[in-house]
Amino acid sequence: MKTIILILLGLGILGGGGWYWYYRHNAAPAVTFRTAELARGEVVPTISATGTIEPQDVVDVGAQVQGQILRFGEDSEGKSIDYTSPVEENMVLANIDPTTYAADLGTAKASLAQAEAAVKSANATRDQMDAKLYQATSDWERAQKLKSGEALSESDYNNYQAAFKTANANRGVAVAAIAQAEAGVLQAKAAVDKAQRNLDFCTIKSPVKGVVIDRRVNIGQTVVASLNTPSLFLIAKDLTQVEVWVSVNEADIGKVHLGQPVTFTVDAFPGHSFRGEVGKVRLNATMTQNVVTYTVEVNTDNSDSKLLPYMTANVQFEISRRKDVLLVPNAALRWYPQPEMVAADVRAAMADKSKKPAAEVDESPDTGKSAHKNAKKAHAGPTSKPTTKPVNNEPHGHGTLWVLDGKFVRPVKVRTGATDGINTEIAFTGDPLPVGTQLVTGEQHIQTTDNGTTNPFAPQPIFGHRH
Fold first, then answer.
1. Same domain for 331 and 426?
2. Do the Cβ atoms of 70 and 54 come closer than 8 Å?
3. Are residues 75 and 163 in the same domain?
4. Are residues 226 and 273 in the same domain?
5. How far is CA 264 from the centre of its chain?
6. Which pLDDT score is estimated for 25?
7. Domain identity same for 346 and 392
8. Is residue 461 part of a domain?
């Protein structure tokens, strides 16, 4: 009985192993190809960058005096000035406590009145000195006449002469006092103007017509104007025209020029594309982590007011626009098949070519090794190192496409041109393929059961399957 059991157990193990071997070798996955059509259309190569929406003209309104914010002004709708408030030129934005500056103005006006009174006093003194000079002049002239007749003593004669000279000098002092008093008036007037100006500065007014995009103070807050002018409001003059400030890498800045068309999107409006054009390329480059970038200003219309200041924009600079050209997906240029997927004659050419010395290798479009090399170049991207022959005046490289040949694929050599990152412009080096030709872009393995039917939901072998 033990012998029979052992024999049955051995037969069971052999049967199970045989069944697994049969399943492993006859249930190999079927390979299907993913394809895309050769099409004719338009391709637009672009440079991608990121920027920020900025108002074209922004005015930073500050305070030239210090004090406490008492109140805000009112906009055209009678509401207190706040974010997004529309303002007109010379509209009151805020009021600073004017008490100190009003007192300074009063003091300056009092000093002016005192200076003006000093001018009047000086004029009166001059008039008095004129009268004394007149009397002294008369006495001196009479003394000169009497001296000649010896009717006047020498002492009296000298006294009249001294009185005349003293009166003349006193009048000069009076005239100088008037000039000094008048200078004091000018100084007092300047002090009044300064005090009045400081008092006027307590009323913050809008210098332009625009929209308040930032209010940086609150009622009751004290602003202090010292070395730096405190900023109170940020006003955009016109939000119907905005700019996008874009940071462009130094490797791409040579492809950017004035008037260049630009498209961009913002996260707030997915699916909507905005258009603009390059208005300025700034020369002051910046370096961040050893990466040099230049700021490019892109002008765009914002009549619908969708774009708000400081939004992040995903920008595409249009380098060129290729119309009515043959296009293939980039995936078709990157894909390369396994040797068993290639048509037999191409596979044989690949085998023959692999036996030749490197100097004798033929780089014809029909050899598999050449196709493999070019597929590697295509895998690196359609914008590989350009050669001397352009496709419609565009720099290009070489690539390989694969077309269906029954259950196999066959290579087709092409030259690549402009690309937009999804599709690439191509030109055939040999006989062209018609538009609509199916190009292989990838492969898919589907499990095949023992009866030959393809079932993508069939359980996979424990140890995998044969490729």
1. yes
2. no
3. no
4. no
5. 12
6. 53
7. yes
8. no
Task: Record the tokens describing residue 121, joined without a space.
Answer: 């006093």
- At 354-398, the pLDDT tens digits run 665 544 444 444 434 444 444 444 333 333 333 333 333 344 688
Q: What percent of the chain has pLDDT over 70?
A: 81
Does residue 137 lie in a domain region?
A: yes
To the nearest whole number, what is the mean pLDDT of the chain?
Answer: 83
**What confidence tens digit (pLDDT) does each residue in 121-169 have?**
999 999 999 999 999 999 888 888 887 666 778 888 888 889 989 999 9
Whole-angstrom distance, CA of residue 374 vs CA of residue 410: 14
Measure the CA–CA gap between 322 and 315, rounded to whole angstroms.
20
My answer on whether 77 and 212 are in the same domain is: yes
Provide the residue range defining the domain that includes 427.
Answer: 25-42+324-446
Closest to 375 measured CA to CA, from 356, 350, 357, 402: 402
Q: For 177-230, what is each residue's pLDDT tens digit?
A: 999 999 999 999 999 999 999 999 999 999 999 999 999 999 999 998 776 778
Do residue 329 and residue 439 come from a single domain? yes
Looking at the 3D structure of the chain, how many domains does it have?
Answer: 4
Regarding whether 296 and 333 lie in a shared domain, the answer is no
**What is the pLDDT averaged over residues 303-314?**
94
Task: Give just the sign of the alpha carbon dihedral 6, 11, 17, 20.
Answer: negative
Mark out the alpha helices in 356-417 (DSSP H runs): 368-379
What percent of the chain is predicted at pLDDT more than 90?
59
Q: What separation in angstroms does the CA of 121 have from each of 117, 127, 182, 401?
A: 6, 10, 11, 107
Give the SS3 label for residue 352.
helix
Residues 448-467 as b or e (16 or more Cβ within 10 Å = b): beeeeeeeeeeeeeeeeeee
Residues 30 and 132 in one domain: no
Would residue 14 count as lying in a domain? no
Give the CATH number for residue 285. Answer: 2.40.30.170
Name the residue type at position 130: D
